[in-house]
Design a protein that fits this description.
By secondary structure, this protein is of the alpha/beta class. The protein has 2 domains: 126 residues, Rossmann fold (3-Layer(aba) Sandwich), CATH 3.40.50.2300; 66 residues, Winged helix-like DNA-binding domain superfamily/Winged helix DNA-binding domain (Arc Repressor Mutant, subunit A), CATH 1.10.10. The protein has 11 helices and 5 strands, in the order βαβαβαβαβααααααα. Helix 2 runs parallel beside helix 3.
């Protein structure tokens, strides 16, 4: 499903979806309000969501989707790649953020990744998300721990994360313990609160 106020862009997404038999177009909406009405009638595993739309924009619709349609994974598509915008959307539940100008291959790669693994963050975005952090512990995480972090915040078990990342459950358990220790927390609720307070300034 796609939500964008430009019909030409919606058609281009439909053409991309048609290139891959793994996906099927569930519908098009031209603003956030239309998207919510469409989701009441049809289920969508993925939604490609524009930011600037009339009536109800991407900033306004995402929190509603997080409450009513949490099983639907949102990919933000935008002409902008500003750090605060990326932090804001990823911090509020979007599973990926990609420029509208991306190649067809990139769209399909991101869609497949989000469908199977839940979260797609580029190396550039990883650096962006932590470089202005006020929390030193988050900067001390290893690359492996940083890959585990968003999955922990998504409430996934050690076994689920192990399957997603192709690692042993015991390895994930160690990463979880290290992340908790480095951030001085002892449960998921505290970890999520810490991450949002310190890693996502301005979100």
């Amino acid at each position: 499903m796609v939500a964008d106020d430009h019909p030409a862009f919606c058609k281009s997404i439909a053409d991309i979806v048609a290139c891959d038999s793994s996906f099927e177009m569930a519908g098009e909406a031209y603003n956030g309000q239309e998207l919510l009405l469409l989701l009441e009638k049809k289920h969508a595993d993925l939604v490609l969501l524009d930011i600037e739309m009339p009536v109800m924009n991407g900033w306004q619709v995402l929190p509603v989707m997080q409450k009513k349609y949490r099983e639907t994974k949102v990919i933000i598509v935008s002409m902008y790649d500003d750090e605060s915008i990326v932090r804001g959307f990823i911090g509020n539940g979007a599973r990926a953020f990609i420029p509208k100008s991306s190649a067809v291959e990139t769209y399909l790669e991101v869609m497949h990744h989000v469908s199977k693994r839940g979260l797609y963050i580029t190396d550039k975005q990883k650096i962006m998300l932590v470089k202005e952090s006020t929390a030193k512990p988050l900067k001390l995480l290893t690359e492996a721990e940083f890959r585990v972090l968003p999955l922990l915040c998504d409430g996934r078990s050690n076994n689920e994360i192990a399957v997603i990342l192709g690692l042993k459950t015991s390895t994930i358990k160690t990463h979880r313990e290290n992340i908790y220790r480095k951030n001085a927390v002892n449960n998921i609720a505290s970890l999520v609160k810490f991450v949002f307070e310190h890693r996502m300034p301005g979100s």
